[in-house]
Amino acid sequence: MKLGLGADHRGAHCAKQLHDRLVSLGHDVRSFSSLAGEPCDYPIPAYNLGTALGQGAIDNGILICGTGIGMCIAANKLPGVRAAIAHDELTAEISRTHNDANVLCLSADLLGQRLIEKIVDTWLATPFQGGRHARRIQEIQAIEAGKDPADKA
To answer: Domain 2-144: which CATH class?
Structure first.
């Protein structure tokens, strides 16, 4: 799988370890930020990763900042991005099955590395459930297009 990975300075250490692990598992991982920990404002890697996702250069993305909140807000401003914060394996699973999240946002400050890895493993292994949830993704896409999601015309 072609994965994008980005972090601000607070998430760089976790992202570096995650990058190495994902590569060892056979994923093609593209970094959208320095993983060395230099100062970095979170909107920049969120924008770069989200843009690459929208262009089809990557299949999914993972963003890590102090809380995951800033990355999630910034990434969700881009068309086609469905970013979700996960704090455990259940929220990771539901973000995929119900919301077809294509960007996972994680907290470097609140989650340990082992939990981050479990969350990512769950997220990557979980498919979108479709069904009634597909209708909701279409409604999100309507909002992105500036339309009323309740208007079925």
So the answer is: alpha beta
